[in-house]
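Class prep. Sample record?

___
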Amino acid sequence: MFEKLIDSFEKLCLQIIIEILLVPVTIFKLFQNPYRCYDLSVHEMEKEETERFRDYLSPIKLSVYTSVIVSVLLMDYGGEQSFISKIKGLSMVEKALFIFLVNNFTAVAFSVILLWYKKEKVNTVTFRTLLFSFIYTTVYTSTPFFLLILSAMFLGQTVDVNSYLDHLDNIASSGDYASRDYIFFIIFAIFFVIMFIGLIQLFRALHYILKENFRYHPYVVWFFTLLFFLIQLYYARGFV
């Protein structure tokens, strides 16, 4: 009995380590080519369920690692407040589920719109493919904040990011910065670069998904691409 428990724990730890290592690989591949948001989803959904997402992280797990976990940490230990944190009696798992659904609301909405256009049912491969594709696109807005927040946690040696930012404000007048503070400023500059690249790749990814599933005049596709882009950008402002 004890050996089985140890074996299960070993498999769990190994799986978590592999998935954590796949996070930067998946993010890099999606940033490298935004068309992979859709192509990768299509390719993986053609496989057997047990064979899917061996070389890359699934969009749901990627969302959990890059936004949900960080959001829960900030909410429970960093003093961040949101409407979810004000709901009493929620466990960490329930908060994570709420955050996941909220963060990926646009992905669900966009998928349903295209599903309605294609006249297909929800419980189909088409819906999952579209949903996975749109969830993948959220990486372009979540990754810069994910890196910035983790950097602040690591360099500030605290989960309370606001306390570290307050520390930087307090020493701004004296200019008595430590080496880790300069590193954070460099990361902050990189944050804007990644954000700029992410916005471009987000627009390209959305256009490709719509072009592959929306059989209308190119101008109509461009219009809905811009509309979806603005909606996702506006919605992503309040979430990690």
About this structure: The chain has a mean pLDDT of 81.
